[in-house]
Amino acid sequence: MDQPVSTTRAIEWVTEPGLLDYDHALAEMQARAAAIRAGTAAERIWLVEHPPIYTAGTSARESDLIAPGATPTHRTGRGGQWTYHGPGQRIAYVMLDLTRHHGTVPPRDVRRFVAGLEAWIIAALATFGVQGEIRDGRVGIWVAHPDGGPNGHEAKIAAIGVRVSRWVSYHGIALNVAPDLAAYGGIVPCGISEHGVTSLADQGVEVTMAEVDRALRAGFATIFE
After folding, report:
1. Cα(159)–Cα(198) distance, rounded to whole angstroms?
2. How high is the mean pLDDT of the chain?
3. Tell me, what's the pLDDT at 86?
4. Measured distance CA(116)–CA(119) in Å, rounded
5. What span, in angstroms and rounded, lies between the C-alpha atoms of 22 and 66?
6. Which residue, 30, 32, 27, 2, is CA-closest to 14?
7. SS3 160
8. Are 47 and 91 in contact (CB under 8 A)?
9. What 3-state class would DSSP assign to 165?
10. SS3 category, 47
11. Range with the lowest mean pLDDT among 5-19, 41-55, 151-165, 206-220?
12. Rounded to whole angstroms, how far apart are CA atoms 95 and 180?
């Protein structure tokens, strides 16, 4: 039987320079998760950007890949469906030992962990005056337009796709800072065709990636520390 991991090391934050190859990132995450599980490495939040790529989660339908061949694709073990990664999008890979208590998230509670990820993104967006919201039955963070009626015309600003293996998490969140939103036209993002995709830049918020990283770190502290 697997034994709970016990470590008092602080969570390590790493910001990757440039554009990181997706396959390399996946291999590194898997290795780090194994080391966290073994108690030989600290938990890690890894901030990266990728070259353009479509990734398919465990629920992805082939029919939701609208433009096959136009952009590299990768099927991965995270939850969720098709999403896009590319320059101008901040990805935070979250490698945590979920046998431990993390702020508002109790041990061994995947639902509360995902809720914590949602709250984290919402807190970071609030730094820039953007109101992020959650929707029942739709994972991710949404921005509603006030002129769209009772529920508002809305668009997704951040995606969440995680995997938990023997109580260590990896993969994570993807926040649209200023990516090429046209790239989402090659897929049905997260299997949802009736709503659009947006970004901080699309909302009129011009910020640097360094500013976003600071907001993410501050928001993380309010939820997970």
Report:
1. 11
2. 89
3. 97
4. 5
5. 21
6. 32
7. strand
8. yes
9. strand
10. strand
11. 5-19
12. 27
Active-site annotation holder among 29, 33, 190, 200: 190
Rounded to an integer, what distance in angstroms lies between the CA atom of residue 217 and that of residue 171? 17
pLDDT in tens, 200-222: 999 999 999 999 999 999 999 99
Distant-in-sequence, close-in-space partners of 208: CB < 8 Å, separation ≥ 6: none
The two three-digit tokens of residue 159, written as one number: 């995606």
CA distance 56 to 29: 17
| Token pair listed for 175 | 């926040």
All residues at 6 or more sequence positions from 88 whose CB lies less than 8 Å from its CB, including other chains: 49, 176, 177, 178, 179, 180, 199, 201
Known catalytic membership, residue 204: no
Residues 166, 170: Cα–Cα separation, whole Å? 11
User: What three-state secondary structure class fits 122?
Assistant: helix
Tokens of 41: 């490495």
Check pLDDT > 70 for residue 142: yes
Helices of type H across the chain? 22-38, 110-126, 209-224
User: What is the SS3 assignment for 77?
Assistant: coil
**Whether the predicted model's global pTM rises above the 0.85 cut:** yes
Place of tokens 């901030």: 47
